[in-house]
Design goal:
By secondary structure, the chain is α/β, with parallel strands linked by helices. It has a single domain, classed as Alanine racemase (TIM Barrel). Helices cover 43% and strands 16% of the residues. The chain contains 10 helices and 8 strands. The chain is globular, with a radius of gyration of 17 Å.
Length: 244
């Protein structure tokens, strides 16, 4: 990535990559939601991306989002794309429109409970550990039918799809089987449960073209929009939250 580029120029480049990937896959760019992952980056970077037309932003940590979101433009949609701890559910429900990383049935139930208390209806995706990595969160593929059934019983949640984080690979082509596996899992679960599950959240800066080819509808792009992680913002936001 060329670090001399402005955020607006990076947004344009990512949009061009999306358009090319969609053309190659016989899809339309409107089918793809670009989730700009702003973790560690300051509100000023979010404002620049928003000025360039980005409307959906992602955060990995609730604490950082709580410090950042009030300082950003107010007409944006925020998604939680990182692991959600049960003790952070209430602020997450207040801050985010969509949670990509629901990884257990107890977390589903807790989200439903808190959404009810907060008077909200929340869109969620189930995170799937397609590769079975011990270091990753997510449902095992064989546990998905039970999780889908439980989500459908919860009145304050709208289950809209699945998410995965594949293994780190040097060659983006090596992640294709994991993206394909998620799409096939989605198709089976949708057929068996009667739940449409339209969203597939998969693909990041290095591999989102492959994800688009395999059916992604949401791609989570951080580095190619904002550059390397900006640790001073995270440190300052966490220190501020601790001080409160």
């Amino acid at each position: 990535m060329d670090e001399s580029l402005s955020i607006a120029e990076r947004v344009a480049r990512v949009r061009e990559r999306i358009a090319r990937a969609c053309a190659a896959a016989g899809r339309h760019p409107d089918e793809i939601t670009l989730v700009a992952v702003a973790k560690t980056h300051p509100p000023e970077a979010v404002a620049e991306a928003a000025a360039a037309g980005v409307r959906v932003f992602g955060e990995n940590r609730v604490q950082e989002a709580a410090a950042k979101i009030p300082l950003c433009p107010h007409d944006l949609e925020w998604h939680l794309v990182g692991h959600l701890q049960s003790n952070k559910v209430r602020p997450a429900v207040r801050l985010f429109s969509v949670i990509h990383s629901v990884d257990s049935i107890p977390l589903l139930r807790r989200l439903d409970q808190i959404a009810g208390e907060e008077g909200r209806r929340l869109r969620v995706l189930l995170e799937v550990n397609v590769a079975g990595e011990r270091s990753k969160f997510g449902f095992a593929p064989e546990a998905l039918p039970e999780a889908v059934a439980e989500a459908n019983r919860l009145p304050r949640l709208e289950l809209v799809g699945l998410m995965t984080v594949p293994p780190i690979c040097r060659d983006p082509e090596d992640v294709r089987p994991f993206f394909r596996a998620l799409r096939e899992l989605r198709d089976r679960c949708a057929e068996q449960s009667g739940t449409p599950l339209p969203e597939l959240s998969m693909g990041m800066s290095a591999d989102f073209e492959i994800a688009i080819a395999e059916g992604a509808t949401m791609i989570r792009v951080g580095t190619d929009l904002f550059g390397p992680r900006f640790s001073p913002w995270r440190q300052a936001s966490e220190e501020g939250a601790t001080a409160e």
